[in-house]
Amino acid sequence: MRTRIAVLVSGGGTNLQALMDAQARGEIPSGEIVLVVSNNPNAYALERAKRAGIDTAVCTRPDMERKILSALSEHGIEMVILAGFMAILSKDFVSRYPDRIINIHPSLIPSFCGEGFYGLRVHRAALDYGVKVTGATVHYVNEIPDGGRIICQKAVDIQDGDTPEALQRRVMEQAEWLLLPRAAEIVANRIRLEKIS
Ligand code: GRF
After folding, report:
1. What's residue 144's pLDDT?
2. 104 in contact with ligand 1, CB cutoff 6 A
3. Considering its fold, how many domains does the chain have in total?
4. Residue 144 or 50, more confident
5. Does the pLDDT at position 143 exceed 90?
6. I need a labelling partner for 148 at 20 to 30 A (CA). Which of 60, 79, 82, 108 fits?
7. Residue 181: is the preceding peptide bond cis (ω within 30°)?
8. Any catalytic annotation for residue 105?
9. pLDDT of residue 145
10. For residue 17, which of 39, 120, 25, 134 has the smallest C-alpha distance?
């Protein structure tokens, strides 16, 4: 019985696309993406999900978390992946899915993470600091922004003349889009084995 996965998105959905493509290639055998939820009705990620025939839900404020929890429950969701999801989830929300929510962050945590570090801001901070290596991290989600246990990381070289946009693209291509499917399979398999043990 495959682990039923929901992916939470807010924007372009390139990480969602990487997950769906990996699933299509049979690289996430322990899980099945059955729902995509966005807090942004205009998120292109929703188009990507619809094209792939995956159910979608738009859950906006007010009561965003209640709406999301309802959609997750209706779909029998066992695991949640935050893929470019731009809202902070409360301790109450996170506590309903202990060790079952994972997030992709575009830096090598603990660098350039936490409150206010998201999207291009992360890469701008890395360039401003002058680090020579950055990368991406997949971690479990707890109530502290980017604070949960690390699952996997991948380093990416910074090149002379990098702009935040160029660096973001490289980190996506060389790290995020590889790490998230791998982490999804690791966690989906752990949950699957817990169910049958
Ligand atoms: C990416 O930089 C990702 O690391 C961050 O959100 C950005 C957009 O991701 N979490 P996506 O294209 O919407 O997946």
Report:
1. 87
2. yes
3. 1
4. 50
5. no
6. 60
7. no
8. yes
9. 86
10. 25
